[in-house]
Structure formats: C-alpha cells, structure tokens
Amino acid sequence: MSGPEFVAPPRSLRRGAALTLVFVSVLATAAATNSLPGDERTPRPARTRSAASTVDGAELARAASDAAADGKSGTKAAEGVVSRSGDRWGAVYDRSDFEQFEDSLDGQYTGVGLLARRGRDGRIEVAGVQPGGPAARAGLRAGDLLRTIDGRQVGTRPVTDVLSQLRGGDTASVPGTPVVVGVRRGDDTVTRTLRRARLTTRPVTVGRLPGRATLIKVTAFTKGSGARVVKAVRAAPAGGGILLDLRGNSGGLVTEATTAASALLDGGLVATYDVHGAQRALYARRGGDTDRPLVVLIDGGTMSAAELLTGALQDRGRAVTVGSRTFGKGSVQMPSALPGGAVAELTVGHYRTPAGRSVDGKGITPDVTAGERAQSRAETVLSGLGGGA
Fold it and tell me: Scanning 57, 131, 162, 379, which has its CA 20 to 30 A from the CA of 46?
C-alpha cells in the first residue's frame, strides 16, 4: 500500500484479526496488509511447495529478547537476523513506525510526501511524490536516487530505517521540523531542506476524458479506496468506457484491491496465494460492471496489490493493459510480534493470478507496450474498444 514514506506497512494486528497478509513492497512505502475477510471462500490446504521465510521465528524472538535483556535495542537485533536471512522482503518495525503505518492505512501521516522503494540494484530511490507535499514543492521527483538524509548516508540501509528518518523517527513526526535530503539525479547531486507536514492522501481521483470515458486514478489501496472505485464505476456515464490508471501504485490493502476488482468483475477468482504451502484464494463479489470497455494503465511502479488487481483483470479477459512491465512484487508477508512491541514482517509465500501466473520477480507484461505517451495510447485503445475516449 502504499503511502508516502511507508514501506509495505506492517499489518495492523488488530484485535480479532486471525490472519494479516501483506502483499506489499518493502520497497514501496506503505505497504498493504490486512486481515482477510471472514466470508472469503478458502480452499482446503493443498500440497504445494512451501515458500516459507528463511527466518526462524523463534530465533528472531530470542535475538530481540536477549538484546533487550542486555539493555540493547531488540528491534536492531531482529533487523540483523532478518538482514542475514536473505528474506528480500522481510522487515522489522519499532512501535512508533507501527503507529505511523496505522495512520497511513487511514490515509493520513506526517512526513514529506515522498514514496521510496528499493530498486532492483539494491539502492533506494524515489518512487513518487505526493502532489502539493514538501518533497514535490522542493522539486524532488520519481527516479531520484536517495543518497543522504540529514547528512547520513542512505547506502543499503533498510528501507524502513530510511523512511523512519524521513518521518522524524522516534524524536517526533512533528509538522514543521526540517529534514535535509540529498539525491542523485543523473550526473547531478541535489540537496533540499524539507519541512515535515501533516498530509492526507487522496488514493482515488476521478476525471473525465473526451467523449463519455472516465479516468479513475488509484495511487494506493488504503482504507476505503476499493469502495471509492466501486462508486466511481457506478457513477460513470452510461455507454462510456473506463481508463483505470494504476501507474505508480505501490500496493496497499489486499482487501481493498479485491473490492476494486468487484467493481469490474461479476464474482469469481481474483488471486490465489499460499501460506507455508497451504493454498487459499480471494474472490470478487458478484454484481460488478462487466460490460463497459476497460483499459488499465501500468508501469514499473505498479506493485503488489495493484499487480494482483491487474493480473485478475488481464487473465479474465476483462481489460486491455497498456504501458510497461510492472515491478514484480508477488510475495506474501505475515506479521510477528516481538518483545518490546516491535513487529517483524516475514515472507511466508507467494500469490498467483487467476491463470496461475507467478508475479514475484517477473511482473506483468502489458497487452500493449507504451512509453512516455502511455496515457494517450491507452485512450486510443479505449476509443477503439468503443469506450468513447
């Protein structure tokens, strides 16, 4: 899910939550996680190859406990275990970060409006900036390579650590406090002083295209975003098509992505996933709009829950996808409470599209490849489908 300055937000371990899944990207701020709805149909466990994390949960808890007993940081000790494990998406969050993640799922947070992720080369880059936020006003943009924060080298530090520093860390995510960010842009180094602000995300925006077509832009699957997509589809002009823009969507709550799928599918399978080898599934609700022409815009910033939605619409022949290959974040994380209030997110499996395709490390290839003029190309495709764009 993605919310500014958040990496795959740890599941919120809410009371009564039997299972909290995170289809997020630890490299895309604000990850998405949530308990699966109790009314989802779940297949009997299947004999599939386990994709369990290489992290031993008992070892993780023991390391955190021993460190705390010695007066050291249990969170840092746990981070060391996860780092050595080879779990690419594993992460550890302290109590304050966890509270920030909770806020991000509600669409509010204190920070600089910067989305960060770990690129394929291991370096941390800006995935996007929130319009009107401190980072945007300072001229930072997607593709910038994060080099320093308040003079401290970013290097290969955990993304969670970097984002925590952007938000203010334990000292305070206080609006108005400064943070100096250095980025690499091409051959140039740019340094900007940003002032943190209390920001509210707008994960779903709706606009009109020429003719009777509707543009629905979803930047993250935070709470309520699925219902907003449903509302937008129902309010679209009769006879007009829909252009669903998922570019730069780094993920979010998988239940919200499933609700969004329900707006455009009449029930049926959205995705399957495994937890320690036990196969389960997500289904759309019946009654969605399956008649209007639909085109989905995607790019390398389309990740996690956004890829889950894209794969469902593509596999089931509901949409034509336009743009460039998606990121390829298809692993499943589950939360584990640690001594001292920290939370560890460990990889336990992977999800697959309705056709059984694995997304992790591969991404989704669009039906129509398009570069800088992707939206124009998408509008042309939608018009050709009779969508009125």
Answer: 57
196 and 303 co-located in one domain = no
Domain termination site, one of 180, 200, 220: 200
Together in a domain, 176 and 209:
no
Question: CATH number of the domain that 169 lies in?
Answer: 2.30.42.10
Angstrom distances, CA of residue 386 to CA of 129, 134, 184, 229, 294: 34, 41, 44, 21, 10
Over residues 170-192, the pLDDT tens digits come to: 555 688 999 999 999 988 999 99
Name the catalytic one among 25, 35, 217, 329. 329
Is 362 in the active site?
A: no
pLDDT digits (tens, 9 = 90+) for 2-27: 334 433 333 333 322 222 233 333 22
Read off the pLDDT of residues 299-337 as tens digits, 9 standing for 90 and up.
Answer: 998 999 999 999 999 999 999 999 999 999 998 877 788
Q: Could you tell me if 268 and 152 lie in one domain?
A: no
Residues 133, 276 within the same domain: no
Indicate which residue of 104, 304, 324, 331 is catalytic.
304
- Return the pLDDT at 11: 32
The answer to whether residue 261 is domain-embedded is yes
